[in-house]
Amino acid sequence: MEVMVQPENIAAQLWTVRALLGDARGLAAASRAIRRIGYRAVQLAGLGSIPPQDVRRVLDDTGLKACSAHEDADEILERPGQVAAKLRIYGCASVAYPYPKNQDLSSVKGVQRLCRALTKAGKVFRAEGILFAYHHHHIEFQRLGGRTVMDMILEQVDPELLEIEPDTYWLQAGGVDPVEWIRRCARRETLLHLKDYGVDPAGKPLCWEIGAGNLDWARILPAARRAGCRWYIVEQDDHFRTGDPLASLRESWKFLQR
After folding, report:
1. How many whole angstroms separate alpha carbon 250 and alpha carbon 79?
2. What phi and psi, each to the nearest 5 degrees, are found at residue 131?
3. Cα–Cα dist 204/217, whole Å
4. Which end of the chain has fewer CB within 10 Å, C or N?
């Protein structure tokens, strides 16, 4: 059987275990557990006030690579140079804009302002040798004048300055075909968030472990590989079926190994 994702290209998003990251000791314990599951890389997020030097020490001690980081949205746009300095301490050469915080996505002018801000930050990150990506949710698939917000971001921000970090759950929640959008972002999607999409008995959509929901991974993963994806990042926002975020990461890891 063909291996669709190599183990060394699978990362765990630390936002999944944010409840365990109260301090550097908590980060160290969670990181050791993640490494025991089999993950060799993480995407940094949910670190709170843990000093960057302590984060780097934990990464070095556990042998985990920081493939990317989610940093504060306002800081990314307003102080990209400071973000770049923090990333150098982490030993990380990639950052994703996590959410359009304090941005107006309800008007074309508001989206245009965001695109200009992303372009400005992207120039700083490019000069620093850092890959800059945009992580979407479902709200970017609202339509303004017949086009989605994501359409406008793709068209108005130079791909040399901004990649896209597609998220399989939020693509489905946004009402689009995950495979189609992964193809649309080809050659500008080094990072991909993997989440499954489930529905509870009341019809409420839930973010589930990979393989536990309804997404067609036999189509999604090969499409991502063909599109040039390098990092397959496992994330679970909440709704852990066992109540344990580490067990959730383990279940998704086992599915990807199969």
Report:
1. 36
2. -75, 130
3. 21
4. N
Nearest of 83, 46, 33, 43 to residue 230 by alpha carbon: 43
Q: 11 by DSSP, 3-state: which?
A: strand
Closest by CA to 87, choosing from 38, 131, 117, is 131
Q: What is the pLDDT, as a whole number, of residue 242?
A: 78
- C-alpha 112/C-alpha 10 separation (Å) is 34
At the topology level of CATH, where does 7-257 sit? TIM Barrel (3.20.20)
CA pair distance 30, 252, nearest whole angstrom: 16
pLDDT digits (tens, 9 = 90+) for 52-87: 999 999 999 999 999 999 999 999 999 999 999 999
What's the confidence (pLDDT) of residue 240?
82
Residues 221/193, Cβ–Cβ less than 8 Å = no
Q: Which two tokens stand for residue 19?
A: 């409840």
Q: What is the pLDDT of residues 116-139, one digit of tens each?
A: 999 999 999 999 999 999 999 999
Beta carbons of 227 and 5 less than 8 angstroms apart: no
pLDDT of 52 reads 98
Scanning the chain, the segments in alpha helix (DSSP H) are 24-37, 52-62, 73-78, 80-90, 108-127, 149-156, 168-173, 178-184, 217-227, 245-257
The one-letter code for the residue type at 185 is C
Q: What is the pLDDT of residues 181-223, one digit of tens each?
A: 999 999 999 999 999 999 999 999 999 999 999 999 999 999 9
